[in-house]
Amino acid sequence: MSVSYSSGHKACSGCGLMIGFKQILNNLNPNSVLVLSSGCLKQVLTDYPLTSLNISAIFCDKKNVLSTAVGVYDIFKKDRVNKDVVVILEDDFFESEFENIDFVFNQKCRLKVFVLDTTGQTSKGFNFKDFRNFYPLICTSFGFKYSASSSISDLSDLTEKVKKMVLSPTPCFLQVYTSCPVGWGVDFEKSVSIIKKGVDSGFFPVVEFENGKLSRGNFLVKEDIFSEFLSLQTRFKDLKPEEKSYLSRKLVHKNSVLRRDLG
Questions:
Q1: Right CATH number for 16-261 from 3.40.50.300, 3.30.1330.60, 3.40.50.150, 3.40.50.970?
Q2: What's the CA angle centered on 193, arms 191 and 134, to 5 degrees?
């Protein structure tokens, strides 16, 4: 077990968020300080005055996480304190914090930014916001030397990318695809397999940008797997076959545009 956390958290069975969170913590330096948004993680990790975390953590309002992390980094730098500042955000990042991501790079802070992405965990029906912008590419355009995506369905890939971020002397960004069995309406024992279908279908491309260039990436869409991915989630139970077909075409177009833009 990692020294960064102990047993006793209150997460739901099969919580994909906790799988991703623990895998990140397992590979951080022990001197790390976490700055987290006040979402599910706060609810399941803390029960004042108790906590499952064995390292320092600051929970912030979802609109102030990055600015708080920059302030913490500046204090450590000024006082010559050797600590890594690690930011862990949840879904609310996409609506409240992404506009501030360039601030991290402009301030020349060596923050490690992780986003645990459950793509609108409790939405009913298909929300077109689930076709998110391609954030690793956007971070790369802001100047991040390392930006990538991964998922809890391939922990070796996730581990490798976390270790690269820890060793990097520059700001880094990693988007991790996780599941919410309760919100998605899937059996808890399928919390990882449903993510694999999301990745294999092309719905969530797993990529890696290093020094401004795409070093690894797969944008191939498999429409049959995408249809199965939707069908396994009760939140999409009202989708008609023609609507699933339309969403598949939409996904093919989105990924083809990404492949074209990336050369």
A1: 3.40.50.970
A2: 85
Region for residue 187 given its phi and psi (left: phi exceeds 0; alpha: psi -120 to 50; beta: otherwise): beta
The better pLDDT of the pair 108, 125 is held by 108
* Collapsed DSSP state (helix, strand, coil) of residue 149: strand
How far apart are the C-alpha atoms of 176 and 116, rounded to whole Å?
A: 5
Query: How many CA atoms are closer than 13 Å to the CA of 89, on its beta-carbon side?
Result: 29
Cβ neighbours of 129 (radius 10 Å): 12
Instruction: Tell me the whole-structure pTM to 2 decimals.
Output: 0.90
Residue from 100, 88, 208 nearest 147 by CA: 208
State residue 127's pLDDT score: 57
| One-letter amino acid of 262 | L
Q: Residue 224 and residue 248: Cα distance in Å, rounded?
A: 9
Residues 105-122: what's their mean pLDDT? Answer: 78
Q: How confident is the model at residue 1 (pLDDT cuts 50, 70, 90)?
A: very low
Is the four-CA dihedral 65, 67, 69, 75 of positive or negative sign? negative
Handedness of CA 216, 175, 257, 220 (dihedral sign): positive
DSSP-based three-state secondary structure for 252 = helix
